[in-house]
Specification:
- By secondary structure, the protein is α/β, with parallel strands linked by helices.
- It contains 5 helices and 3 strands.
- It has a single domain, classed as 3-Layer(aba) Sandwich (Rossmann fold), CATH 3.40.50.
- A 3-stranded parallel sheet has the order 1-2-3, sandwiched between helices.
- Helix 1 links the parallel strand 1 and strand 2.
- InterPro entries: NAD(P)-bd_dom_sf, SDR_fam.
């Protein structure tokens, strides 16, 4: 990518890098992904290479679908956390649609080093999930002050502006 003078690197992360989710290694790993995107973007920008951290929402993976079907309406803590929202979760294809949109954005360098929630990218680029789900009416996550400034510089987040 550096010799070509352009490129895009996408690391998959989640809000688990900001708040406890699942376990310590998960959180530390996701925090590292976000920091990696910010730091690598700093070093690669002058080469025309973008590096971003993509935060998919709750994703209907095969493993999670099977787990939810098996647990039903159980008292399981994971089911309690994700079960009520699982029907509105995004497909596994949605992240791919986001990456394609980013890769074809002529202004991708303006997003380099940022945390990019998939719902915000769907709205920004007018994407719909494979089942027709749209995020047009949902709030822009980058506009919500759910991240204490002392934990993470808000400059890591994209500004949620339309393309």
């Amino acid at each position: 990518m550096v010799p070509a003078g352009r490129g895009l690197i996408v690391v998959i992360s989640s809000p688990g890098g900001l708040q406890y989710m699942f376990n310590v290694p998960y959180g530390v790993g996701k925090a590292a992904c976000d920091r990696l995107a910010a730091d690598c973007a700093h070093e690669l920008r002058h080469h025309g290479v973008s590096y971003v951290s993509l935060w998919p929402g709750l994703v209907q993976t095969e493993l999670l679908k099977d787990y939810m079907a098996e647990k039903g309406h159980s008292e399981d803590s994971l089911f309690k956390q994700f079960g009520p929202n699982f029907s509105s979760a995004e497909s596994t294809e949605m992240s791919g649609k986001c990456v394609v949109a980013l890769a074809t954005d002529p202004n991708i360098l303006s997003l380099s080093g940022k945390v990019l929630p998939s719902c915000d990218l769907a709205r920004r680029y007018g994407l719909q999930d494979v089942d027709g789900k749209s995020w047009a009416q949902q709030p822009d996550l980058t506009a919500i002050s759910f991240v204490p400034c002392s934990l993470l510089s808000l400059s890591l987040f994209s500004q949620g502006q339309s393309a």
